[in-house]
Amino acid sequence: MEDPPLASLSLTHVHYTPGDQISYLCAWLALVPQGLCIVYATLIWSNREIEIMLMFAGQLACEAVNWVLKRYIKEERPREMHGKGYGMPSSHAQFVTFFSVTLAFFLLFRHVPHPTETHTPYSFFQRFLLSLCALAGAGAVAWSRIYLNYHTPKQVLVGCAAGAVFAVVWFGFTTYLRRSGWVDWALETYLARLLRVRDLVVQEDLVDSGWARWEERRRRKNLVVQGKKSK
How far apart are CA 170 and CA 167, in angstroms? Predict the structure, then answer.
């Protein structure tokens, strides 16, 4: 009895045209959602920030909406594409649009960083430029799906629209959770305290997390070393 043929894990298997450098770049852009999931997991584990957890929860909910929409609409992918699954709307376009729009909303409307003795946070204009970069990156990923013939332009546009709409809805929902006190309540639960979940990124930059304590520790260490040398 012959062994069954090997299958391809389509989650990371990307078709592109050999010799076409743009197609090769688009193949790497197709891995952006997987990379962002790794970034989410890394930040959640290392920083324990509830804002990042809420954003990741919204990202997963957005993916669930895409799964439902694809199976409701049941529109096939372009004929040139040999992949499997329905194409409307584009999950890549919806994923990166939700991420970029939510990040832009956070940077422009929720993130109010305070300067410290060791760090000057980004100004509103700098955060605006970061938002534009995120949106431009999302546009590049969405366009790559058309270039690689994984989706039609309509499927990508609908994916972008779905991601943007869900980002607006999710940002409004999380704003309600904050204003109504649900986030503060969650932070006081036993599980949140056990996992050391915190809510600092709204008023502090991640790059400044723990930096003041590190500088103070270095200062004390240098004083001790200098004291030993002077004896």
Answer: 5
* Residue 211 main-chain phi, psi, to 5 deg: -65, -40
Contact present, 106 and 55 (Cβ < 8 Å): yes
Q: What is the pTM of this model?
A: 0.82
pLDDT band at 190 (very low <50, low <70, confident <90, very high): very high
Distances (CA, A) of 163 to 52, 57, 107: 18, 14, 18
Question: Residues with Cβ < 8 Å from 209, sequence gap 6 or more?
Answer: 47, 200
DSSP string, 161-219: HHHHHHHHHHHHHHHHHHHTTHHHHHHTSHHHHHTT-B--TTTS-GGGTTHHHHHHHHH
What are 59-90's pLDDT values in tens digits? 999 999 999 998 888 888 887 665 567 778 99
Instruction: Please state, in angstroms and rounded to a whole number, the distance separating the CA atoms of residues 58 and 36.
Output: 13
Report which of 108, 14, 101 is spatially closest to residue 58, judged by C-alpha positions.
101
CA distance 35 to 52: 15
- Location of structure tokens 């008023």: 203
- What per-residue confidence (pLDDT) applies to 229? 66
Judge whether residue 91 has pLDDT over 60: yes
Distance from C-alpha of 128 to C-alpha of 181, rounded to nearest angstrom:
28
Are the beta carbons of 30 and 148 closer than 8 angstroms? Answer: yes
* Rg of the chain (C-alpha set): 22
